[in-house]
Request: fold
Amino acid sequence: MDISLNAQIYNDLRNKINCNVYNEGDLLPTELEMQKLYGVSRAPIRQALGRLENEGIIVRRAGKGTYVAKRQDWSYSQMGGFRKEFLEKNNDLYCTTMVTKKIHAPRDVCLDLGVSLQTEVIYIERLRRYKGEPFQYLKHYSLCLSEEVYRQAGDIQNMPAFFVENGIVIDSAVEEIDAVPADAEVAKVLEVAEGTALLRIKKITYNESEKAIELMRYYILSRYWKYRVTFHRNGIKINVE
Reply:
């Protein structure tokens, strides 16, 4: 079933805000500029903006324009997992892309992505550092974009934002988390002793057609980085840390 125009615009704007293409306090394009950008009439633009405003994600200021609200003002917190940690420490973070190549996906990756065995994917390895110290080792298996696009990007700092910049709409993601000791490979990359306690996260990202576009597996030194989720709904607040 085709998604409505206002829903497409809502999803695109919210995705760009989630991924920091538009940061809190940023002035959004005017309705007229959005009409030209999306090639639609004003009605779906206003419907999409109305929905974002009702959710507390944007604020409209008479005579000044429409701005991204402060994240603590959102009715539903999007600051799940390590996202809050990253936002707080962003100035001291840097992510290096170590490997980019096309491969036949291993069997377990194909099963997770819901594709046929030996499907070709773009395999990417990245290492994120905080103040020069490695703390997060990421492995991506991507079904979207070409190897050349990833190679030309160099060191990708924010993969969700990179997807948005290249026209890929992220609709949802599912994460699974477990605790593991660092094996020899991971310990070497993270510069820690074998057996060091890590969090291992598997994340599958889906587009608006509910098709998997990427599987990411990453390891993180949890003694420095807390996994935090905050939900708000009808005055109920649940924290997971």
